[in-house]
Amino acid sequence: MAKLELLLQKCDSLTHIKQLQAHLLTIGRFQLYPSITIKLLELCALPPITNLPYATTLFHQLQSPSTRHWNAVVRGLAQSLQPTQAVTWYATMSRSSQKVDALTCSFALKACARALALSEAMQIHSQLLRFGFGRDVLLRTTLLDVYAKVGKLGFAQKVFDEMPERDIACWNALVAGLAQGSQPSEALALFERMAEEEGLKPNEVTVLGALSACSQLGALRGGERIHTYIVNAKLDTHVIVCNAVIDMYAKCGFVDRAYEAFENMRCGKNLITWNTMIMAFAMHGDGCKALELFEKMGKNGVCPDAVSYLAALCACNHAGLVEDGVKLFNSMAGSGMVPNVKHYGTVVDLLGRAGRLQEAYEIVKSMPMFPDVVLWQTLLGASKTYGNVEMAEMASRNLVELGSEGCGDFVLLSNVYAAHNRWDDVGRVREAMKRRDVKKIPGFGYIEVEGVIHKFVNGDQNHVNSHEIYSKLDEIKCRIKAYGYVAKTNHVLHDIGEEDKENALSYHCEKLAVAFGLISTDEGTPIQVIKNLRICDDCHVVMKLISEIYNREIIVRDRARFHRFQDGLCSCRDYW
DNA sequence: ACAGCCAAAA
């Protein structure tokens, strides 16, 4: 027995496992040593071996599998590419003679989180209450986490509220859950509550959730405070935390400070550190710096991965470095990289924006995989910019086939027709939109004034200063018109906007936020706005004019990148 | 003595 356990410790491949198993079988002891078979199962079900077919076969050879045997398989399946199988095994187990324990529930719940299986999670929830595990803090945390990950933040909050005692992991799970679930303000509020009410000291996991919330909100003040705390609490010994700090500064509009944090790291950099910084430069349109860093990472012994290439390509795209981008893309194969659909998407965007539509299309045709919705949207956007009707129609057909119901796709196609005075076709697209009940993602934006985050949705009238904001917008309109501004009215948008007039062009959330910034900050202070979608043509023009007429620097972070408006010009050089 | 919370991506 002792000898067997020694052998077991040395098993590091499936061959070894098989040899040991064969040995046990030949001496007729296979069924006799549960502790050995448990270890064997755990070895082959988990990394680095991870051979689940073999694990399940081995399991089926057992005459009376114990709870721990079951758990080994459920755990392995939960971490595998088919987490739903873990749930199936859990269900089979709960019907078998063997008792499910708290760990089985925990593994099955994690599987639900990965498979985004809400109803299964709820079933396991009610079962674990019946089994009497309802007071297990670890299990409750898992439960909270599953609900948050499947998007049921209300349920997660309820699990949290009902906990009589909460340790730091419970708070961390909810802070992270809210941040990941697009409720960054709530995440930050909870983060504050944690220290104030419970006197808990945020750890490296807590600050990750909080920093992510700041990144989303563009909450520089909050981010700075958390950064100070991180340094004081010596949490900056964790690479993962440093990476999140870099990302936070970059997304709050301060690449320089992101780079400063990158340079002054007290711990070693990893692949993600480099990727985050390259992406940061890309977002800010600093193409050359991004490419320099991409070169430098290789020299520092960190091998670029698919994300590094994507970030560098993205940098070329935002900076208009067409030749560099194409060269980089073509160099991928030579470096043993297989471009994925995102790399193709970026290079198609790069060529499309430069007006090289035919080349872009050639690349689409050469792709070894099916183009996705985003890629066709990219091509459609470029076709609109350059007025290529055939290409636009082709992209639209593909979008319809892929079941895309985004409002933007229809609007773009209709704009192409409108530009060619093909009004019958414009009408046809309009009809199709009505028939299909196209979806419109609501636009919203944030602005931080004196450390307070203000949120605006399109056509928002709920802000306390709503009156002043709207009169400021009227004033802006007058002044920019005097400069020759003509609204970039969009026929289709106007047409479908009839029902909700609030969504009209002139009250886009970024305009509201900038107007609020103008009335609530001192002259000369830069105004920074964060938006969830891409900035529209009209807003882009208006921002440029405001920056000139009001002599204000305006920084807008949209879904894709930063736009820095100054003296009537934008840092993207209208290339976006 | 097999559990929970964890950074980047067109």
TrEMBL record:
A GO BP entry is: RNA modification
Keywords assigned by UniProt? Repeat
Which InterPro entries has this protein been placed in?
DYW_dom, E_motif, PPR_At4g14850-like_plant, PPR_rpt, TPR-like_helical_dom_sf
Segments annotated as PPR repeats: 167-202, 270-304, 305-339
GO molecular function, a single term = zinc ion binding
Enumerate the spans annotated as DYW domain. Answer: 484-576
Q: Which family does it belong to?
A: Belongs to the PPR family. PCMP-H subfamily.
Q: What is this protein called?
A: Putative tetratricopeptide-like helical domain, DYW domain-containing protein
Q: Which organism does this sequence originate in? A: Rosa chinensis
Biological classification of the source: Eukaryota, Viridiplantae, Streptophyta, Embryophyta, Tracheophyta
